[in-house]
Design goal:
single chain; 7 helices; about 220 residues; mainly alpha
């Protein structure tokens, strides 16, 4: 019997579209902010649709989850590279932001794959009421991710234009001020992922060393 071709699953096709849109946005970021923003925001919004498609068509795959994560991380990284060029005085903070985003998500995802669900001894962040809300409430998760993206996108657009003025402030500056706390909280949660993943990875190491010790005996 021929196996399923997961590469043409609907959510994965949406994922490929996200990659293409992200690449187009990178190309236009230095010069054409309108085209860049349209492509970047569309790619980010499609992140919500691929998850719905995966559940609707029962086409959730590890490949799709990995593609989704990589697209998110690379999208933010690409935008931060451009922002570091636009705002050289803040280059350190953009580099730090990229490092936190990639390192924390990578170790958390990799550790989750290694630990599986074989042991109850692993630290579960969902036991914390705040983290439980973050993981189980899709609305909260959406606005956290959207707010984080809005922070970087607003910084990007402000390099080119202030936009329409509302109650004495430009629209994009208002978005920047409102999204800044969300971006800071998102980074703090990412660091929490790093800490918990590191502890869980240490548990895996200890268990494996115990297993090796028993075999030697």
């Amino acid at each position: 019997m021929t196996g399923e071709n997961i590469f043409i699953f609907v959510p994965n096709i949406i994922g490929y579209a996200r990659v293409v849109l992200a690449l187009i946005s990178f190309y236009y970021m230095p010069t054409n902010y309108v085209a860049a923003v349209i492509c970047y925001v569309t790619s980010a919004l499609l992140d919500a649709f691929d998850g719905h498609a995966a559940r609707y068509f029962d086409q959730s795959t590890k490949f799709g989850a990995m593609l989704d994560q990589l697209t998110d991380r690379c999208g933010t990284m690409g935008l931060c590279v451009v922002l570091a060029h636009f705002y050289p005085d803040y280059m350190f903070w953009f580099i730090l932001s990229v490092c936190i985003d990639i390192a924390c998500h990578w170790i958390y995802l990799h550790t989750s794959i290694l630990q599986g669900k074989a042991s109850h001894k692993f630290i579960d962040m969902s036991e914390n009421p705040i983290m439980n809300l973050y993981y189980t409430n899709r609305t909260v998760l959406f606005w956290m991710c959207a707010g984080n993206e809005a922070f970087y996108a607003a910084l990007y657009v402000l390099h080119f234009t202030e936009g329409p003025i509302i109650i004495g402030l430009s629209l994009f500056r208002i978005i920047l001020y409102l999204s800044t706390p969300i971006a800071l909280v998102k980074s703090a949660i990412s660091i929490l992922h790093l800490i918990v993943a590191s502890k869980n990875l240490a548990i895996i190491d200890v268990n494996e060393r115990k297993g090796v010790g028993k075999k030697l005996k």
